[in-house]
Amino acid sequence: MQDFMQYIYSFVFGGLLCVIAQILIDKTKLTPARILVLYVTAGVVLTAVGVYEPFVEFAGAGATVPLTGFGYSLAKGVEESVSKDNWLGIFTGGLGACSAGIAAAVFFGYLSALIKKPNSK
């Protein structure tokens, strides 16, 4: 039963993040790209002040998979790398923590570009 509730929490929290983004798209003049940057930055800032960690523990993938979760991963990577490598970790920690996700995004983006050619309008 605990696993089932974790799925529900993940779905609700991730859905709530999507609802907030949709409201921002519909009610403001923010472009989707600016909302993307806002979400990643919010994930970094909320992690830095210690607010996002309880969401990750509560919602699991609902908090780590969306864009705020990418910001969370960047911030945690920098935090761990700074504790290990001192100031050099500021530059290497974020990308080191997210390198697998970034590589997968590039690979699958390239693969989908090979499979489906864009239509010109």
3D structure, described in words:
With 121 residues, this protein is mostly helical. It contains six helices and no strands. It has helices at 2-27, 32-48, 52-59, 61-64, 67-85, 89-115. It is globular and about 50 Å long.
Helix-strand blueprint:
Elements (H helix, E strand, L loop, with lengths): L1 H26 L4 H17 L3 H8 L1 H4 L2 H19 L3 H27 L6
Helix pairs in contact: 2-5, 5-6
User: For the CA atoms, what is the radius of gyration?
Assistant: 17 Å
Rounded to the nearest angstrom, the distance between the terminal CA atoms is: 51 Å
The fraction of residues in strands falls at under 5%
Report the biggest beta sheet as strand number plus sense, adding barrel if it closes.
Answer: none
Average pLDDT works out at 87
Instruction: Quickly count the helices.
Output: 6
Gross morphology: globular
The strand count comes to 0
Helix/strand-derived category reads mainly alpha
Unreliable segments (pLDDT under 50, ≥5 consecutive)? Answer: none
The succession of helices and strands, N to C, reads HHHHHH
Helix content: over 70%
Descriptive key words:
121 residues; mainly alpha; 6 helices; 83% helix; globular
Summary, kept brief:
This protein is an all-alpha fold.
